[in-house]
Amino acid sequence: MAGTACVIGAGMSGLAATKCLIDAGLEVTCYERDRFVGGRWNNENTNPIPRSTVTNLPSYMSCFSDFPMKKGTPLYFSANIYAEYFQDYAENFCLLPHINFEHKVLKVEFMNCPKNGWKVKFKNNEGDENTKLFDFMVISSGFYVLPYIPEKIASAIKGFTGNIVHSKDFKDAEGFRDKNVVVSGLGNTGGDISVESSKFSKSTCLSTSRGSYIISRIINNGTIPISASLNRLSAYTPSWLMKLIKENIIQKWSNHAGDMERWNLKPKNTLSVIINDELPYRVAFGKVKIRKEIIKTEGRSVYFNDGQVQEDVDTIVLCTGYTREYPFLDETILKPQRKGKFLPLYKGMFPVQHNECLAFVGMFSIFNSVAIGVEMQSRFIAERFKRNIKLPTEEEMAKEIQSHLQMFDDQFKGEAKELNLIMDPWAYYNELADQIGCRPSILQIMFSDPILFWHLWSRYSFHEFRLYGPNKWNGARDAIINSDELRYSFFKPS
């Protein structure tokens, strides 16, 4: 079955969706509002990420399953290297002819006659508006667009007369030179901005209501903590025991940087973790002061919940996240819940209505590979659009979505910062792979390919999803076997 498909956005998610839908035999058109692929990772695009940003995941966990990073790519790398990777990916798989750059989607409407489909209204860079009809719709425009400011914080900063900026608009800390800065919110972004601010500012305070464990990218003996998530044996460990092991390991790794409890950073929930190499040292050097949440402001004075007051504050930086809103899409099709913080999507992809022809990609957070997450979603969606995958009834999907939300409420006591979080990444990948038909049998590999089995029996590989099934990749086996050599190629002289 063929058909036409529209993809909105050409960032990481949009590129994966475009490729996978093309692989499925669909005629694909992608609309991208900027001039380049890569979304916020490309400094030439609108609202790029801060210039100092370095990936939180190592290179071997940041690539798509059929397109490894180039040999010699640093273990952790900057935004411009990632932007180059996405450009190479688009060129390698001939995606660029399918992408209409500088085209902004204005409205997406469901059309049920003469057949189910979508009418897309868009505007090009010259201001000309047009419409086009499609059979299928994939929205992969991301959710780092509209800032979210909690009512509690908004009320607390009403009396502030200095400068207030959201992290969305932060590019570098040069403007903070010799200024007094307060950063509100401790996630990966809040940690990064606090570190950068402290290198230029007169003072930097980091305000957090919940705290967080801080883990470095590399710890003792060159250990890469995130690699622990590749341990296949964890799938065979009882969940209660795995929870205890995770809690113990996270606390041990974070205490490598400093005593989180003594620093007033120990979180209520063990899953509150950020990646930051420098923050513990900036705190130890007195360059970043940890404060509780902001409770009120008067003029340029900021009052915190621990009784501390910071005077003469020039700037408050709000690292309070983003709200999920899609102004081009009618709320009768998908209405974000919890003040825009939760998208009611089945398996993080499908709205209850129109799930046979509408899907979302990349609308999740995950303590693992985002690239593989969006790719597996895209492959699943492609098979769904081809009618190779059947979903539950609308009633069953709605029930599972609410069950997911209830689980977060129970576990985080209503204080979860991210409601579209994938809690168990490999269980999620494997569930999708089972239905796609690309999950390998390790037991069969043990008998058919002992060498490959040796590399897979104790450790997951993202490339394993390209060994078999739809759109398998002939280079998958070599990529798995040579993964260690590629992983550390940056350290070898060229």
Automatic annotation (TrEMBL):
Subcellular locations according to the entry: Endoplasmic reticulum membrane
Source domain of life is Eukaryota
Topology with regard to the membrane?
Answer: Single-pass membrane protein
Q: Which reaction does it catalyse?
A: hypotaurine + NADH + O2 + H(+) = taurine + NAD(+) + H2O; hypotaurine + NADPH + O2 + H(+) = taurine + NADP(+) + H2O; trimethylamine + NADPH + O2 = trimethylamine N-oxide + NADP(+) + H2O; N,N-dimethylaniline + NADPH + O2 + H(+) = N,N-dimethylaniline N-oxide + NADP(+) + H2O
Query: Signal peptide span per the entry?
Result: none
Cofactor requirements of the protein: FAD
Keyword annotations for this protein, in alphabetical order, are:
Endoplasmic reticulum, FAD, Flavoprotein, Membrane, Monooxygenase, NADP, Oxidoreductase, Transmembrane, Transmembrane helix
SUPFAM superfamilies membership: FAD/NAD(P)-binding domain (SSF51905)
The answer, when asked if Endoplasmic reticulum is one of the entry's keywords, is yes
Q: Which GO terms describe its cellular component?
A: endoplasmic reticulum membrane
Q: What class does this enzyme belong to in the EC scheme?
A: oxidoreductase
Q: Which InterPro entries match?
A: FAD/NAD-bd_sf, Flavin_mOase, Flavin_mOase-like, FMO-like
Q: Main role?
A: Broad spectrum monooxygenase that catalyzes the oxygenation of a wide variety of nitrogen- and sulfur-containing compounds including xenobiotics. Catalyzes the S-oxygenation of hypotaurine to produce taurine, an organic osmolyte involved in cell volume regulation as well as a variety of cytoprotective and developmental processes.
The UniProt family comment states: Belongs to the FMO family.
State the name under which the record lists this protein.
Flavin-containing monooxygenase
Species source reads Clytia hemisphaerica
